[in-house]
Write a structure and sequence with these properties.
The complex is a heterotetramer of chains A (about 90), B (about 325), C (about 100) and D (about 100). With about 325 residues, chain B is mostly helical. Chain B contains eleven helices and no strands. Chain D has a single domain, classed as Helix Hairpins (Orthogonal Bundle). Chain D is built from three helices and no strands. Classes of the chains: A mainly alpha (about 90), B mainly alpha (about 325), C mainly alpha (about 100), D mainly alpha (about 100). Chain D: Belongs to the CPA3 antiporters (TC 2.A.63) subunit C family.
């Protein structure tokens, strides 16, 4: 069971790494914000899977912190995105 | 096997983001890379068996640093700073060569580390029960290297003083942070109303659990600071003026209490920062809570920045 | 009984991963921003949701299970907040005022 | 094995951060590169801590505690650098000279 969960964590990690291409290449700021948001959620999924796989509940606290602050960073990304003169 | 693949994936992603950051054209792009880099670095710390640092990196690296740099990038886009010319291709290549040499030298040092690695883990394990703390990193932070933690809380207070000293002439004593940044937009206001209560409960949980498991004051302080910043960014909370005594006391209270306990320890136990026998747990808790509150206020004020000119509102 | 739970965990977790892969593929392949946003929110909410759901029986205790649900709720809240902001940002980039 | 890998990653980050610091004109990019440099140094430290694991701890707690302190101090330094930069950009507007 633990190995399968670790394999699942690896798969999510590889998916998220692939998602990075959108950050690196994304033409617009919106694309980059989306990719960062997906990376945040992917990171949370990896942490949660590792917490179950290696039975270390501390990783759940790390995932909790990440979940709390990924939203915060994403909002900051959107608020500070270039070309936002109209929103301010 | 899956561990190695995970490390390779995390390492490659971090390197790609770092290279992308250095080669980025716009500051916003580089900052978006930096936030992604912070998140991945948190995973790297988990793989390195340092969950405490992963928590700190996620809270400070991905959260607070990201917001700080993003708001700075947005405001610098409006008023760019005169930058000198970029070095020519030849010079850039030379710089790249030297930096590569530095990296190779450090890499060589890593590969030739002594085999029986000198480690203090055994000593920490032996003396941990005396600190009444289960988390070894917290034990080191609060008793063996308590001086580091004291100096660090002093550094945070000094950073606030430094940032406030950058107030333009007309703005002294005003509200910290720029005026126009606050955005009354629907979704942000929703988040700013829902997230802080949850964040405060989580921060207290992480602070409390930090005694015996990864967690602790710096991570809790960073989360509390992020929650206050969120409310401030959405225009729901206006911080007190920097001239207010209460705010200044809040920023310096943690370091002050820690220093007082240190001096009291010197008088009572003969050694600076020594905790009297039966009091360790109580004193450590008192300092942890006071430091968390002070550092949370200080970190938030650091990200907000100095007050602006009154007339430019 | 535990075999059934383990089975449920594996099915849910790998279904969640499927959504992650689909969402990321959507993020990379779709032509314009708004369709990418559509793909992102699917991966975001359902991917993590299924993984969290799958891990609930493995949580071993009420507090970890509660933490898992709070993590999912926070991710949903984040997605719900950031989604419209990203959409407004995307629309602005396509047609600046 | 994974500790050495992350140590090498840290070394590479130091190189990239140093390059960004020296070769990039934009000041904000330099502050970011400086953070990369710091992140690389902490990773090298973390790899050493991981190799020193023992006595039931996944890593030697002393360097981990120092890295934790380092991250907070590095953040304080970054905020000061950013605020100096913002003041520089505000001053650059040709404002009236200060009294």
């Amino acid at each position: 069971m633990a190995e399968l969960l670790q394999l699942a964590a690896l798969l999510v990690l590889l998916t998220v790494a692939a998602g990075l291409l959108r950050i690196l290449r994304g033409p617009g700021a919106a694309d980059r914000v989306m990719a960062a948001q997906l990376l945040g959620t992917g990171g949370i999924a990896v942490l949660v899977l590792l917490a179950a796989a290696t039975a270390t509940p501390a990783l759940l606290d790390a995932a909790l912190t990440l979940a709390l602050l990924a939203a915060f960073a994403a909002v900051a990304l959107v608020v500070a995105a270039p070309g936002r003169a109209s929103r301010r | 096997m899956t561990g190695l693949l995970a490390d390779l994936a995390i390492g490659a992603a971090i390197l790609a983001l770092a290279a992308g950051m250095v080669a980025a054209r716009s500051a916003f792009t580089a900052t978006a890379f930096f936030i992604a880099y912070g998140l991945l670095l948190g995973l790297a710390w988990v793989r390195l068996g340092a969950v405490d640092i992963a928590l700190t990196e996620a809270a400070i690296g991905a959260g607070l640093s990201g917001v700080l740099l993003l708001t700075a990038a947005a405001r610098l886009a409006a008023r760019p700073v005169a930058t000198e010319r970029a070095p020519g291709p030849l010079l850039t290549a030379l710089i790249a060569l030297c930096c590569a040499a530095v990296a190779v030298a450090i890499g060589a040092a890593i590969l030739s580390l002594p085999e029986p690695t000198p480690s203090l883990a055994a000593e920490v394990a032996a003396n941990l029960p005396a600190t009444a703390l289960g988390n070894p990193v917290a034990g080191v932070l609060m008793s063996y290297r308590a001086l580091d933690t004291l100096l660090e809380s002093a550094v945070v207070v000094l950073a606030v003083v430094g940032v406030w000293s950058l107030t333009p002439p007309g703005g002294w004593g005003g509200f910290p942070g720029p005026f126009h940044l606050r955005v009354e937009s629907g979704p942000l206001a929703l988040l700013a109303r829902l997230l802080p209560p949850i964040g405060i409960v989580i921060a207290l949980h992480i602070l409390w659990v930090g005694k015996d498991a990864p967690g602790g004051k710096f991570q809790a302080a960073a989360i509390l600071a992020a929650m206050w910043l969120l409310a401030w960014m959405a225009g729901l909370a206006t911080p007190p003026r920097i001239a207010s005594r209460r705010l200044r006391f809040a920023v310096s209270a943690g370091a002050g209490l820690f220093l007082a306990i240190g001096v009291a320890g010197a008088l009572a136990e003969g050694a600076f920062l020594a905790y009297p026998a039966g009091w360790t747990k109580a004193l450590v808790l008192a300092v942890e809570f006071a430091l968390t509150a002070s550092i949370a206020v200080a970190l938030a004020l650091l990200v907000m920045g100095p007050p602006e000119e009154e007339d430019r509102a | 009984m535990s075999l059934l739970l383990d089975g449920f965990t594996l099915v849910a977790v790998f279904a969640g991963i499927l959504f992650f892969v689909a969402g990321t593929a959507g993020l990379l392949r779709f032509p314009d921003t708004s369709s990418r946003l559509h793909a992102l929110t699917k991966a975001d909410h359902l991917g993590l949701g299924l993984i969290v759901l799958g891990l609930l029986p493995q949580a071993g205790g009420v507090l970890p299970a509660l933490k898992l649900l709070v993590i999912w709720a926070l991710a949903l809240l984040a997605g719900a907040t950031v989604g419209p902001l990203i959409a407004r940002l995307a629309r602005e980039e396509d047609a600046p005022p | 094995m994974s500790a050495t890998l992350y140590g090498l990653l840290g070394a590479a980050l130091v190189g990239i951060g140093l390059f960004g610091l020296l070769a990039r004109p934009s000041p904000l990019l330099r502050i970011l590169a400086f953070n990369l440099l710091g992140g690389g140094v902490f990773l090298v430290f973390g790899a050493v801590a991981r190799r020193g694991a023992g006595a039931g701890f996944p890593g030697d707690p002393v360097p981990q505690a120092i890295i934790l302190t380092g991250i907070v101090v590095a953040f304080a330094a970054t905020t000061l650098a950013v605020m100096l930069l913002l003041r520089l950009s505000a001053e650059g507007e040709g404002r009236s000279d200060p009294p």
